[in-house]
Amino acid sequence: MKKLSARRRHPLAAVVVLLLALAATGGLYAFVAPTGKAQADETAQSLAIDEGKKLYAVGCASCHGTGGQGTSDGPSLVGVGAAAVDFQVGTGRMPAATSQGAQVPRKDVVYTQAEIDQLAAYIASLGAGPNIPTEAEYGPEGADIAKGGDLFRTNCAQCHNFTGKGGALTHGKYAPSLEGVDPKHIYEAMQTGPQNMPSFPDTILSEQNKKDIIAYLDAVNGDDTESPGGLELGGLGPVSEGLFAWVFGLGALIAVAVWVAARTAKAKKS
């Protein structure tokens, strides 16, 4: 006991105990923490950014600048986020043609999805922005179609028509049709506000609100549904539908008036 007590009073005893405790803690952390997976994910992300930077240098830097800072031919991409890249490149709008019109139209996609993901990873590394949504965010599970219809008519129908058929805007611009558009791209468009469209972040339209709107569009434009207005009535726009009502409605009233007048005149003669 005297020997043990003497060892405890040794000047280096506290240092030895501290070193043993640190070694035990480090060994336990190395055993419990998923370092292998974390390192693998970090390595994969770093490789994706490197590959995306190469793709960017070839296909995007001439307009958006070598560091995404923007030029007179293209806006800055710092802070736009991965979602903007996935939407613009995934719908074929980017890369844009050299001679642009009022707005960039949807075209055939140039890059594979893997390359799009690499470009998105590189742009996301330039500055924080909206991430690419997961299927759980835009999928139909838990969506309220009726509420989605109300939200769409309130926030989107002014441009896209109330069934998402699209419509004309000013100066040659237009709101594209939403029929057949990937739900992920609709979600990303609401997040990022491409071209003439305003953005709807979660502070304006929550994740659930976006899910509801996407479910409504799928309900009215799905492959297994009929037009809610019959022969596309309700999807042509207020001008064409108003003209239809004016010409055929007024024509029907005139026909009825002529028929009544003819019957009245015939009755008087007899």
Describe, in plain words, how this protein is organized in 3D:
With about 270 residues, the protein is mainly α. Among the domains are: about 45-125, Cytochrome Bc1 Complex, Chain D, domain 2; about 135-240, Cytochrome c-like domain (Cytochrome Bc1 Complex, Chain D, domain 2, Orthogonal Bundle). Helix content is about 60%, strand content about 0%. The chain contains twelve helices and two strands, in the order H-H-H-H-H-H-H-H-H-E-E-H-H-H. It has helices spanning about 1-10, 15-30, 35-60, 60-65, 80-90, 115-125, 135-140, 145-155, 155-160, 185-190, 205-220, 240-270, and strands spanning about 165-170, 175. Strands 1-2 form a two-stranded antiparallel sheet. Helix 5 (about 80-90) crosses helix 10. The longest helix has about 30 residues, at about 240-270. The protein is elongated and about 135 Å long. The model has no long low-confidence stretch (mean pLDDT about 85).
Task: Name the structural class.
Answer: mainly alpha
Q: What value does the average pLDDT take? A: 83
Architecture of the domain at 135-238, according to CATH? Orthogonal Bundle
The first-to-last residue Cα distance is 140 Å
Number of strands: 2
* Poorly predicted segments: none
The first-level CATH class of the domain at 135-238 is given as Mainly Alpha
Strand content: under 5%
State the share of residues found in helices, binned by percent: 55-70%
Q: Can you tell me the CATH topology of the domain at 135-238? A: Cytochrome Bc1 Complex, Chain D, domain 2
Tell me the series of helices and strands, N- to C-terminal.
Answer: HHHHHHHHHEEHHH
Strand order of the largest sheet: 1-2
The CATH superfamily of the domain at 135-238 appears as Cytochrome c-like domain
